[in-house]
Every structure is written in structure tokens, then in C-alpha cells.
Amino acid sequence: MQAHPLARVLIFSGTVDEFVIRQARALGAQGYLRKTGSAQELQSALAELLPPPERPRLPLAAERLFPRLPGSSMYDRIAELGPRHLEVLELVLSGCTNQEISSATTLSLGTVKNYVSSLLLALDVRSRSHLISLFR
Fold first, then answer.
1. 1, 4, 135, 12: which is closest to 74 by C-alpha?
2. Strand, helix or coil at 125?
3. Positive or negative torsion for Cα 113, 75, 73, 7
4. pTM of the predicted model as reported, rounded to 2 decimal places
5. How far apart are CA 73 and CA 61, in angstroms?
């Protein structure tokens, strides 16, 4: 999305995992279609993403292109995180220390600590281990 900000991304996946779907949305995808969907659903989504050349591109009402999921406050909070928070979250969940995250992201150690603290607050968890246990 950074390299091509006008790109329209539609995820086509066999995974029907709420976290994955919400993360795709948070990272800028305009839609998420399940492989088990019908050919008509795929055709409709593509028609919405790729309008005819004579018709100007209008902003998408992205809600139509994402599966309906039961509400979940944890996933709603994750969906509101920015790309850098998601990057740090992914590294925390993979077991990286603050120093390893700092090296991987070129952020200062203090900044990494701030990101980790804000993740714990945003996701309403007590500790790093509690955070990791929620995603296993």
C-alpha cells in the first residue's frame, strides 16, 4: 500500500479467521472474499473494485466486501491499530525481545517500550505473556 497507495486490494483466501480478516482490513485491504464463496460474489467484488474505464473510481463502501463477523472487542481494538503497532505486535507475538524488535524495526529501545506498553493498554492485557497467550 505504501508503494502503490491507489491500489485496491482484495484478499481471496481459504482462511476464515476473524483476526486475519480484521488485520487485512486494518492494513488497507478493500475486501476479503472466502474461496468458498460463489463465482457471482467474486464477480461482483471485482466489478466494484475495477469499474469500467469510462466511469470514475468512487470511494468503496468496504463493508460490503468483508464477511459479516460477530462483534469481538479484542478484534475491534486490533483493527484500530496502525501499521507500526501491528508490526510491533507481530514481533511480540513471535517472541522477540524489545531489543530484537528495536533492531528489526530500527526504532529506539525507548520507542519500542512505548509501543509495547501502548499495545498492552489498547488490548487490555496485563503482561506480554498474557498477550501472547491470547493469540495461541
1. 135
2. coil
3. positive
4. 0.48
5. 22
